[in-house]
Structures are given as C-alpha cells and as structure tokens.
Amino acid sequence: MHDHGEHQVAGDELDESEIHNAWHSFPPTYLAADFRLNNDTAIFGEEFDAEWDPDEANGHRGLMMLHVLAMIGAYFVALPIVLALRAANSPAHYLVNLGFLAIAGVGWLSGVAYSAATPDRYIGNKHGSLGTVLLLTSIALAALDSLGLISRTIAFVKSDDRSWSAFCSQVFGGKTARWLDGPNHRFEMVGLMDRQSEEVQQRQADPVFAIGGEDDEVDEPFHHQSRRTLRRESELTPIHRDSAGSDGTLHEPGSPSSLGEGKRPSRLGAFDFDQAARDPAVDSDEPTSSSRRLSWRRLGEIILTWLRRFQVVFAYVVTLLGMTVYVGMCRGSFVNACAAHFIKGSIFFGYGVLTFARYLGAYSDLGWAWNRKPGKASGTSAEMVECSVIFVYGITNTWLERLGSHAGDPYTVRQVQHISIAIMFWFAGLIGILLESKSVRRVLGSMLGRPRDMHEPPSYAFSFNPLPALVIAVTGLAMAAHHQRYVFQVQIHSLWGLLLAGGSLCRFLTYFFLWIRPPVESTLPSRPPTEILTSFGWAAGGIVFMLSVEEVSWAAMRAGYDDMMAFLNITVALTCFVFCWVVIILVIKGAAVMRREKGIERVSKVDLGHARV
C-alpha cells in the first residue's frame, strides 16, 4: 500500500531518490519506445540502462494511434448510437451495428499487429486478452440480433415480389405489425407499467419524448379518429407501456404500441406484444406452457439487454487497463492504490453521468427523472438504488483497506481514516434503505394510529432522501483535508473533494426546491436546474479522483504540469464533452422513436382507409 506520509510536511519538489528507494524503478514502457524517451524525458519513473537506445526502441506509434482511435470510435461513439437506435426499435441499427463491428475489427487487428511487432514491456498484463473477449462478445450479440433479419431476408428471397419497397417492408419491418418482431422485439428495460397511466386516462395526449418536450402536432386529427376507429373495430383495450429504455417516451392509447387484447392490461409489458394478442392464454390467470415460454423469453431479453449495454462499461474497463499498460503504471506495490483510485473515481464519474441522464429524462417511467411516477404501479425509487449501492460499497471497502497489511500489523492513521469513511457509507446507506422502505414508513406512520381523516401530504408521493448526497459531501470534505506527501497532491485531492461536496450541495438544493413544490403534477421530467450542477460536480470529481493517483501526480510534477488550474480545466472540458455526447445520444434515440411512430401512424392511416373502402 502507498504511504501518505501523515506526519511529514508536504514538499514542493519531487524527491526522485526517495521514490526510487521506496518503490523501485521499472523498465522502459511502450510509451517510451513509441515516443523515444530517455532519462531526461521520461515522466512515469522508468529507468533506462546503458543499452537503451531510443532510436532503436522498435516503436510503432502509428499502429498504436490507429488502435486507440478505432477502439474509442467503435465502443464510445458507434456502440452508443447502436444501442440508442436499437432501444428506439429503428431498423437503422443493423447498418450502424455493422459499421461498429468493422471499426472494432480494425482496432483489434491493429492492436494485435502492435503486440506482435513489439516486445512485452508489461509482464502479466491482461489488456489484450480482455480486448479479445470484448470483441467476441460484441460479435456474438450482433449475430444473435441478426437472426431475425436473416430469416426475413431468406423469406423475401423466396417471395415473388422482389421490389425495393417489398424488401424494406418485409426485411426491415415497414409494416405496423413488424415493429413488434416476435422474439426479436427489443425488451430494452425492466421498467414496465402494468396499469394505465392516470394522466393518459384523463386526457388524450400526443406521444411525448422527454428530451425536448415539444412534439409535432401535424397529424392531430388523425390521432383522435384512429383511436376511435381502432377501439370500435377491434374493441382493444389500451394499456400503458413505459420502458426505461425509452428514456421518457410515453405512448398514448390508440397508438400501435399501446393496444392489446383483453379487458385488463397485459402482463407482458413491452415484450412480444403481437404474439400476446394472438394468444389469449397469455393474459389468463392460470399459468400455461405458452405463458411460461414467454416469461423465459422475456427474461432472456432482459439479460441480453443488460449484456448489450454492459459492453460500454466493459470497454471502459479495458480502456483503463490499456492506458495503464501503455504508460507502465500500477506495477508492483502501486497496484492497490491504482485500483482504489480508478474504481472509486469511475464510480463517481458514472454516478454523475447517470444523474445527468436522469435530468434529461432517462428512467422517467420509474419516477427517477424528478417526476411523478406514471400509473399506480409501485417501484423502487432512485434513492433506494443509491442507498443500496452506498451500503454495498461501504461493506466491501471496510475490509479492503487492510489489503497489503500483515496479521498483527497496527492500524495506521491512513487506514483508520479510510475505514471510518467506509463505515459511514455502510450505515448511512443502511439508514437510507430503511427510510426508503414502504414497510418502515408505514410502521413509523402507525404511531399516530389511523384516524379516518388522515391524508398523506403531497411530499409523500416523492422521495426526499439526502443521505446519498450527505455521504458524498462528507467524503469530499474529508478527502479535501487529506494529508499527502507533496503540496500538489494535496491540491488535487482538495479539488476533487470540493467538486464532490459542491455537487452534493446542489442535490440538497434540489430537494429543498422540490420539497416546496413536489413534482406530483406531471409524469414528464421536471428537470431541476440544480441537477445539472450536481451531475457535473460528481462526474468532474470522479475524473480528478482518478487523476489524483500518485503516479499521475508525480508524472505531472516531472513534466512541469503540476498546476491545479490545468487539471481543473482539462477535467471541465472532458466532462462537458461527455455530457454533450450523452445529450446527442438521447436526441438520436428520441428522433428515431418519433420517426418510427410517425411511420407506423402513416401505415395505419393507409390500412384504415383501405378497410373503409
């Protein structure tokens, strides 16, 4: 474990001899070979012997640049677009997915070529093998997704009509019935409502996409006419179908995505809706073999959905491993410190990104977008999830802080500091879980008895649980005062600590304003502006958390970049870039949803016209 030097005065200049004596030096890295570094230009503590010749280091910078650009472009640019289009059920995702695999293949091949052309400069690294697993997973998921497309293509080839319009209609699902494509229909998230939304029952609303709010009203007369016609002709009962994968897209009664057969809502949610309409046994109270098969298929789709989206997280982990291998970090006794900073910093960064997505309208069907939960269905609150994660995080870190210590070793000041923070996470998370429990709330409310005139206040419809933000704020303030070996390290820890605490302060303001007027009037995202600042503080704090690892700080000091303003500006720029990309992805998804539904409405309008004739 790394030593923070709790009882030493923080120094201004890097003591190379002390670092080399305490942690030893490491051989040349891939970075040193590609950029022809020597003892005067190396910044990650490499030690070059007399035989090292930068001009004959056998570097292949071009291959590495191609590998980095291709893999980043594939998994952080193309793949999110694929997932967005797939969640919107757009046929375009097949073509984009093909491009994604092509780019990923180029990146993988360039990485293999680079590894074959250079000696192994990081013994025991797993970056290459994990990258191969990642690519094979992507190929397998793409092949599985393409089974329906292949079967429809074969059916088209065997048909008599070989026109382009027939190809688009049969293969890519241009017909209304095709948008729910049997077992290949996209069950994109588990946030499904079994009951009708009260808001939908009260008014006839156009489809509303949570990003942007306004929707076109071009076909408004047709909406009302088609709803009346469909109800009259087929006597179908509308159900409310919301998916967290839709990020706040609400389907009104009468749309092709909200019609089902029977006198009560379907229990299938979004999965295989057309098959459910053909099989009345699916909605019966008695379990049948058909309903059991559909349940298993539904479970399989949920698992596949999580696997598809986990590719981005997996790619992020592989990217971090690749960076550490390339520059030669996290070797020897540094591995525990690296793991702690990268894992914890990544958690805060991801938490900030998800918080920003909630602000934009993601998971509004679960009531997580600062909105009234659609329908009467009960579900887990976002605060319950946050408290549960904090609880698990605290339990695991309580015991991990002693890694590297021997039995009987006394507890150091640093260990006591970190263990106490972990215990705070543990029990603060547990308190939050108890407060979010409806059973606990019901028991606490029973102390007043149950008078007939008792009415719940509006605030009961929303969760006001500041404990997650409180835990993060205390962690940030504590780490801002954390002693370090060098002044620059103290500054960097103070920076990310204040960013986390500032984000938590904005979350407190969010609860304050929403307590004054709870978001109980609409299922649309209320988008409190303080949440932008909350998400920004947590995401930026997570990035600086990762950059505060000792080897990065020392490298910055060696290169003359030990400037807190530079670190802050780089972090702010990167955070803004990531947030901008999140907005673009959700806009792409929303545009695809709107385009798909308008196409379905046009086809339905034509079919209704033919039916009248």
UniProtKB/TrEMBL annotation:
Extract the ranges annotated as region (Disordered): 212-264
Q: Which Pfam families match?
A: DUF2427 (PF10348), Ytp1 (PF10355)
Membrane-crossing residues?
64-85, 94-117, 129-150, 306-328, 334-357, 416-435, 460-482, 494-516, 528-547, 567-588
Q: Per the record, where are the segments of Basic and acidic residues compositional bias?
A: 231-244
Keywords in alphabetical order, please: Membrane, Transmembrane, Transmembrane helix
Q: Keyword Membrane on this protein?
A: yes
Describe the location of the DUF2427 domain by residue ranges: 51-140
Tell me the first and last residues of the signal peptide: none
Q: Where is the Protein YTP1-like C-terminal domain?
A: 315-589
**Domain of life, per the record?**
Eukaryota
Q: What is this protein called?
A: Integral membrane protein
From which source organism is this entry?
Kockovaella imperatae
Q: What is the lineage of its organism?
A: Eukaryota, Fungi, Dikarya, Basidiomycota, Agaricomycotina
